[in-house]
């Protein structure tokens, strides 16, 4: 980065790109078309020549691809107005989208299902024509359909076509070349999707894979092709032929707009937003549009925040002499077709005087746009093809783009504007991959508050013992202690004895939750007092509805629950389930307590049905023997797909040996302090657990998990179920604190939760938000 700074100096745009921040950039070097067009390197007669060549090849294309019949063998995509998507974007941005919004569906181009069917197929056809002329395969008046005859295909089989690709260019080159008879090698980067490789192999294409990025695939492919005089390399970085093939789109779009009676001129400006990878496709399309519409068209590129190679090259002035990795970016993105680290020098320099601007966009937003389009218009695009919607959003809401409109005198005519998002791929995406994309998009579009919007906070301890079992305080003394420490509710969880002290202690600012701690004990042998294992499961009196649905009579005050005793060996899982069933059958909430202290193996309790929450922090056993930390078991259960909450508690006995009171608790958000309200909100997970810190707010908003808390040393977002899910925000020293944090969801997570820990190790835990479709 320092060497780059030496070359470009202080550059706020580059610095913003280096932080992977979404950027809206207006090109300061853009000129009016009269000036730029005068010396523009690609001339209109070249584009017309390409249009004529595609028309000559139309009979051959029709022969191989009957799906092009409606256009007589020409490969063209629909242009469709998307008013529902426009309304959805207005709601999303909170700003009006000017004029009409249309979608240019190169995602549905025949043969390759992407914009690459324009330039890629054109370059192969031009090479095939050159060979046909060289070998005398065409006579005056011949239809190009004769190139499909076996004797001509035999000639093509002597030649190899090679290309380096992240995916879609490889598809277009590979399919058309193989169909014409050429031997084909596609060099693909690690970013390329497996399904694209499979399609190519079905056509007999040789696919060579590289662990490195797109640039390495291109270098290797070019080097291999150079060794073979009968090999032709399609150079996406530098190909003039590719560029001209894309440029034919300009006049085609004009014809479609004319068909729909849409005027484009100074009073009716056209805005076009095109996803950009290496730059050849969007550059060629822009060139074609400028030659047709001149200054009436305003073209913008869109790139991922981790791979903004074209914007980096243009903003720095270094073009292909700089790569995104040079400024600390990864070049990796879910938008595989845009996963390019270094831009095309040819395209970048051509765009320097004609491109209006650029936007960069986070991957999660690509998926959100994808879902929004599917929900509103029932049109599927792959994520990279949705990048252009970031341009529409920027034009509606970003200051830089609004300034562009004003400086170009467009404010009075924006109501007449036509905005086109150029969709670059998607129709060939397999159904299973579509479902996966849409599920990821659903998760990234969730807005789920961790707590209810309204209510008051009430602090309570769910695990407490008195002289009614093995504690040392009377119930009255215990109530006094907890009230003095700011508690609002307390559960007397006596060992195998149900108590209900509501009539005695409930008041305006304090209530009792009736309950007990039921036991199943494994003794070493009959007559032995040694206990290798125990199950301790709370039963806390449930809601009125739970009591109504109970299959057994509720416990009565001071009723004894018989201990389940086992000797020598047991089926631990069955023992736990029997205990949990007994609690729920009596209209109780069941919890599983302190498994590490209980010496049980995870298979003896993690599959127990009917458990509402797991005790993950037991203050008493933490201080007694460091056996009260059970958070890992909680994640094991969550990763197994179990919907289960957690709680922190004291398990206080007040024997004076260790500190065991007022150190672990839950804080419930409820509309009132009553048994019904507290229990309902516990069951809903509308609370957090703590041994000290406070969680003020948390949840998921716009694809990000967020939290605000009291000052802490670190914040951890724990997510399941894949390696590297979740993230941590840790202060550099114990003297620093943090009070908020975010985790950008990846889209496949099954759940996410947060914990906030201060410099003393005291922690607050949220409950999980479940993200899979069944639970969300």
- Residue share in helix: 25-40%
Distance between the termini: 43 Å
Strand percentage lies at 15-25%
Radius of gyration: 33 Å
Mean pLDDT: 95
For this structure, the quaternary state is: single chain
Shape: elongated
User: How many beta-strand segments?
Assistant: 33
Task: Please give the count of helices.
Answer: 27
Structural class: alpha/beta
Characterize the main sheet. Answer: 10 strands, mixed
Uncertain segments are none
Q: Can you tell me about this structure?
A:
The protein has 776 residues and is of the alpha/beta class. The protein is built from 27 helices and 33 strands. The strands form six sheets. Strands 13, 14, 16, 24, 25, 28, 29, 31, 32 and 33 form a ten-stranded mixed sheet that branches. It is elongated, with a radius of gyration of 33 Å. The model has no long low-confidence stretch (mean pLDDT 95).
